[in-house]
Fold:
Amino acid sequence: MQDDFSQQPSTPPPPPPPQFSGYGSPATSYSYTPGSYPPVYRPGPRTNRSPWFYVAAIGGSFAAICLVFGCMFWFMMRSIRDGGSAGLGLPTDRIAVIDIEGVIFSPETVDAQLRKFGDDSSVRAIILHINSPGGGAAASQEIYHEVLRVRQEKHKKIVASVESVGASGAYYIASACDRIYANQASVVGSIGVIMEWMNYGDLLKWAKLKNITITAGELKSAGDPSRDLTSKEQAYFQSLVDNMYSQFVHDVATGRHTSDDKIKPLATGQVWTGEQSLPLGLIDQIGGFRTALLDTAKQVGISGEPTIVRPAKNKRGLLSILTEDGEDLFPAPSQMLNRAPGFYFMWK
Structure:
């Protein structure tokens, strides 16, 4: 007699649960029937990323941002070069103002500013705001020629506005402008040349020192500050001064659209007030900076108040002044002994 249980059908074993290799396995990769075990998810191990991955990701993002801004800057600079600042939407009613103050030692700063504003299509005119007694002959002459170049090549109006003093080398520069404005009490003129240096021969005698110089050429040591000039050296230097004086007179005459003969009687080295200068033809109009600004705006077709633009100033602290210009403020004795003769268009 068989057992009753042997007559019952045997229950099939449950199917093995599906195996998952990791995240993202499709839902159709297993089947579920009643009575079977529920599917078991076995996520794969998480991938631990190296710190260098995040460094590279951040670095790449930063590089992409720099590339975008670099392209924007490149297009902006190209727009300025090709079409001027007006291509960037800047106003085109701007008048640039360049200050010429104090003794003129070097032309580099003023020349660079003239070139910058001369190339800027949004700048309609340039005003040289002058308050200077002049300076080095060659430096003043170089600025004079740069003013003429910008006027002629860039077709840009340049006017001079003399504040308190516009003498000698400063007047030399002003004469290259389209017009010269000066106040009634301004000082202008001083067309002439000065050559000077320091003679310390008596100091050497007092200190019982001797200057020993070996030269080849009769006038090679002309201007030796340890001794007096010979008569021949005196004539030699006078010829140089006379030649520079002729250049000064001729350039002023050219700038003022007149002849050398008309400027020569005024080229005595003396100065005149603005009120005296007007009938002499040394200036064009009595008026201060405001008058020059508004008149110039009208002449270049600007209606209303013009926009003034000035060069960015190089701000320096006390430390940089003392370290960079300390030798100018407090000259060392060795500098005084090595001073060479200098030629100046300067009112003293």
Observations:
- Residues 325 and 331 are 10 Å apart (CA to CA).
- The chain has twelve helices and eleven strands.
- The longest strand covers residues 157-167.
